[in-house]
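Progress note, project year one: complex with zinc ion.
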Amino acid sequence: MDTDHAADHEMPSRVETAVALLLRSPHLEVGQIMELMDIGDREFRDMASRNGDIAQRLEERRLGTLRPIKSEPRRCKSCREWFLPYGHDRYCSDACKRTAQFAQCHKR
Ligand SMILES: [Zn+2]
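Model obtained:
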């Protein structure tokens, strides 16, 4: 009766991870985040109900206790993943930076 089908949902998807990250930015409204990630109301509610990180961020936003982050989430120019940059990083990792440099050399 209590069969657990939750195994499929144990790992948060990349989208969920990105949403949780973007929710940390006080400069982004939930609506903007949904637009950025191309998700709808229902999908967002589903994510919040199964992803503790997202639920917590939403609660913190509601209470105004969101902890400030050092830098705004940014989208990696290479792999398009969202990440928290250090300084002026435009890529999420050295691997992505190398990929981008390589691509640049071979452009034209
Ligand atoms: Zn990247």
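The chain has a mean pLDDT of 88.
Residues 9-105 form one domain.
No further modelling is planned for this target in the current period.
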